[in-house]
Fold:
Amino acid sequence: MEENNYSDDQYGRARVQDSPELIAYYKELETLGAGALWTVANDIEPWEPRSSSVPMLWKYDDLRDLVLKSSELVTPEQAGRRVVYLVNDNRKDVSAAVGWLYTGIQVTRPGESTSAHRHRASALRFIMEGEKGYTVVDGNKIMLEVNDFVITPNSTWHEHGVEEGGKTCIWQDGLDIPLVNALEANDYAVYDGKQPLTAPLNFSPMTYGGAGLIPADKTWDKPYSPLFKYSWKNVYPALLEAQKVNEVNPFDGIFMQYSNPLTGGHVMQTMGASMQLLPAGFKGKAHKHTGSFVYQCAKGKGYTIINGKRFDWKERDIFCVPSWAWHEHHNLSETEDACLFNFNDLPVIEGLGLFQGRELTENNGHQQVQ
Amino acid sequence: MEENNYSDDQYGRARVQDSPELIAYYKELETLGAGALWTVANDIEPWEPRSSSVPMLWKYDDLRDLVLKSSELVTPEQAGRRVVYLVNDNRKDVSAAVGWLYTGIQVTRPGESTSAHRHRASALRFIMEGEKGYTVVDGNKIMLEVNDFVITPNSTWHEHGVEEGGKTCIWQDGLDIPLVNALEANDYAVYDGKQPLTAPLNFSPMTYGGAGLIPADKTWDKPYSPLFKYSWKNVYPALLEAQKVNEVNPFDGIFMQYSNPLTGGHVMQTMGASMQLLPAGFKGKAHKHTGSFVYQCAKGKGYTIINGKRFDWKERDIFCVPSWAWHEHHNLSETEDACLFNFNDLPVIEGLGLFQGRELTENNGHQQVQ
Amino acid sequence: MEENNYSDDQYGRARVQDSPELIAYYKELETLGAGALWTVANDIEPWEPRSSSVPMLWKYDDLRDLVLKSSELVTPEQAGRRVVYLVNDNRKDVSAAVGWLYTGIQVTRPGESTSAHRHRASALRFIMEGEKGYTVVDGNKIMLEVNDFVITPNSTWHEHGVEEGGKTCIWQDGLDIPLVNALEANDYAVYDGKQPLTAPLNFSPMTYGGAGLIPADKTWDKPYSPLFKYSWKNVYPALLEAQKVNEVNPFDGIFMQYSNPLTGGHVMQTMGASMQLLPAGFKGKAHKHTGSFVYQCAKGKGYTIINGKRFDWKERDIFCVPSWAWHEHHNLSETEDACLFNFNDLPVIEGLGLFQGRELTENNGHQQVQ
Amino acid sequence: MEENNYSDDQYGRARVQDSPELIAYYKELETLGAGALWTVANDIEPWEPRSSSVPMLWKYDDLRDLVLKSSELVTPEQAGRRVVYLVNDNRKDVSAAVGWLYTGIQVTRPGESTSAHRHRASALRFIMEGEKGYTVVDGNKIMLEVNDFVITPNSTWHEHGVEEGGKTCIWQDGLDIPLVNALEANDYAVYDGKQPLTAPLNFSPMTYGGAGLIPADKTWDKPYSPLFKYSWKNVYPALLEAQKVNEVNPFDGIFMQYSNPLTGGHVMQTMGASMQLLPAGFKGKAHKHTGSFVYQCAKGKGYTIINGKRFDWKERDIFCVPSWAWHEHHNLSETEDACLFNFNDLPVIEGLGLFQGRELTENNGHQQVQ
Structure:
């Protein structure tokens, strides 16, 4: 039924040859803020999804010193946020790491804290190192440990810091700023002073963090998860438990989505996140699908082949997979599992009916590395 | 705006006096399968919700020996299920403990198992004592420990047993059989032979039991929770965590609903369940609301005043609170917390728009004990 | 997999013989508010859905004079509502026409009006005859014409009347009073005086009655349809349109559900309604399903065979089909279509996961009439 | 709490001065695919929503001849679609009329038809002139009349034409092609030959076009409206009815959203549409909100002031309002109403939690025209 030769020289595609008459016609249209669709149709109606991003890898060994150096160069007061952001070679115009997703690495020293602000864009964090770091989300202070995943959803007041006596904290920020800017809907407000703490320390994870349990006497009417922190100390054991009773997904190993316990859906309206465990020796098969993904290695070492190019990663390295790029994950260890955290724009892609995928069938499901 | 004197002798209520002409008219109507509404209107349109059940308490000390004796009197093969059921004095016609809820106490000895069956009615269990008990729900075998809560939803194949080498297991069953019969929708089927196990042991709790985590690569299209077991070893710590950061609910202490992690709703379509922790010294205030409740004390000791009558309970005792009955819970210990499990018909009452409640305002919120 | 012989003398059913020891045991249990499940199990766990209602037909020719006579015998002031209610021979204890559904025929003379009240039970009406009748629902006055369907949902203030200069109005009331009483959740309140009209005449149907159109600048947060009247002048043409392009459903002809335009679901939480057109000469096949139904013939004449018994109906006759009863509808005219209105408890049955059906396969899908 | 002076020279914004050391640092970051957030933060985190589109008006008097001329210059076979598209001065790179919305004017002569294709992008049409035009959506042929609104959702096969004996048809196309391209998810397929008609003519509007009625025996599992055509012959009377009983919205007159009758939501997942009636003499007040809008005047004449600039329109003129632009609509006639059709990206903006609005308070709610 479909013709898949993808030639534009066929009935159903624009095949108009230029002529002097047509060129004159096009000029006339242009003066009226118009054009002839057939001059652009094949370009704006591609046969398959097309990404403007390239796959990239950011090695933590390269970046860590520079990130720490920023803490000597600027203060949080000057910088607003002391962050090194990671930018896709093809998305510098929108400060995106891939697609419409922003990511950066933020450093906070013991005793430092940032001002509180909020924005229509949503944010999330994945903790890379340090001790006694915290975030405050709408008056709820939450302590952070390595590999914890925390959210600061759309329009919540938020600020961060590290307690005196802690150790310098570094975490990855993920935001949908490029998307919300593209959708022409972002805003920003500065909190006048410090947010008052309106809930006991760690209220959210201690109230909503029981598996299959929700407060029977509370209502929650926000369009995002009431659970603001997903602790590694719970997440990793859950992956190990699941591994015992589930077949390994050939593409993604043991694959768990961070979820809003009140909906079973994504943690926020615009960004989702998941954690996957690649068992020792795992050699993932290749598939591609719509949606943009930023990964961080939370444990172990391995490599991912993206559109035929191999990217080797170990703990704390960050890389991205653009929409519709072939990708397959490999664990390089034969004895230890590896864990990949990712955040993505799946709530957008799925919510708007734009998700589709394809599995690589040739070569037993593995790409040829270039 | 409302008149609350609740007198039927007012405009807006039926106030027709009998007369010979009317009596003749009523008889004529009766021959046609009809009647005059005003002869029954005040009765079928009560001012406030009205329950036909009475509060009752079933003491485990009284029942335990009789329950165990059943295992000498009948085999599971003969009995189908070896269960002593608890019946409300006013609901014997429908075999209900309260409202339209059935409950019973089932005993299974080591090495015994029941046949598999299914029915449109939904079932749940709360484990009272024993070791190495298990249930099998749609091919998924799940081990049971004391104070675990498990579900066997609408039309799932299910069977139970205790492994050789275990200890005699006793658990409370809860079913909506009276409701589903009343709604004229129940059915029953016997499985021909043993259910094959289609999933590894404890698949459901090991896959869906991570807090805020769901499998990213699975879909679940059933109208009930994919999490079939809620383990006491997770539930009690969650209550303690919540206690640290939440104010105590004046009626219900620390109050957690067992929840479908994919919806944030009740575990099944017709029955909900929750667990509440009454802190040491807790003296709950009285309220009433629609919905029928069957409680079991999972820990500690205390009493509940229901419609002015005091019912003392300790671990394993079972009692019920009818719809719209005033009730308040008290922990009798000044040093230990007490925990009450309950199951209820809230999914029905809430789902059909029939929930309402009222708090007792007089006497500082406490009932006078008769 | 299922054994369908429906014999209770098989493994998986209760098969315990009485013995003196057991009888003594049962007596002991009884003193504790308990019983042995196996003594009642087969009874409360039927093989198939079981209804306590019988099929019945109420002929309007028989009832109309008696209904009108009530307007000579009592006033609305005395009666609250001047209604002849129709009661199932087997459901007199709960004043139900079938299952848990109440129905009655109400008569109002020109210039009469009733007081306003509200109750947790929901109500609906189907207009049988008269002119210039109206209902007022939460301050919204709506004019009524023959075959119009109107709703007065759960807890809305409502009252009815006929304008001076109109003609005596008769309509069928449908309520879920028996259900809401059974669920122990009903209440009642009398409005003190006349409801003020808070919206222009016919606000609801004039605002929400455009097909595929909703007000872009309004929000509606009630759990029932904002469209309170479904006019016959729109419904019948819609049936005729649908008939032109749809195959006839072998059981139900052209079959349209009254729907909440904001959800596509039932009009209220506890009762649904639909209208079906049986084309000229239609001979429906038999099926059975859960759910209770009260029908009124809105147009034409025909008969329905229910559990093997034939019930002939014509315009304005009312009949009921109990849960799980075989039923098939026949149009007796070879030239005119016939229309059947019904209301039912499908929101309950479907919402609680209790719907199931079966088609008659033998005898070409038609029942043998007894 | 918020400071609204919008100065970047305050605590909470980036305020880092360049220095030789910092410049060297920035260069080093750049070599690693990274940057310092504080160099871009204020730019990518604007205080208020910011649109890259400008308001524009396309007058039909200017365009009509050129549109018709295209039918002399190219055939549908050559052009794929014979469309003059309207492009925003600031969005030529993405062929968008405003934001991420595409619009064009398509002309089809009697006897012509296009090939069938489908794409992940969704489409809609608003009919401007002609007779006997039709569209075929997934095998369902639908006749089109002036001011009808039709949808061809995400991935449906579709084709258009005008019957022999009809009159040249011109309609406005609206698509989300720029959005779906930006989200890197578009695709395209050509149907091999003509779509077979799988449903009777006008099946969709004749089946789903009854107000408050849906087929009781059909299920629809698509994420878009089953109603593919919203006929002007129903829409305009519905506006007039609503006008009689509703207060006029000070910004939008009588304002009706085209709606999925099964959800009460937008007609498609990515684009919404509505029709508003501006009563004779209507002088709308100004507000602004997120979301991009393309308007066509369906009836009457008037003007819209957008960000202080007046745009005069009459029947068939098309104009756009960018996100967060102040806008107010005025009807220039004191005797006739005017109607504005629009389509928009509200499903995206609302669905992702990005909707917000503001009303103009100064000058009695009216903008100063520049």
Q: What stands out?
A: The radius of gyration of chain A is 23 Å. The CA atoms of residues 5 and 194 of chain A lie 61 Å apart. Chain A has a mean pLDDT of 96. Chain A has two domains: 56-208, 232-365.
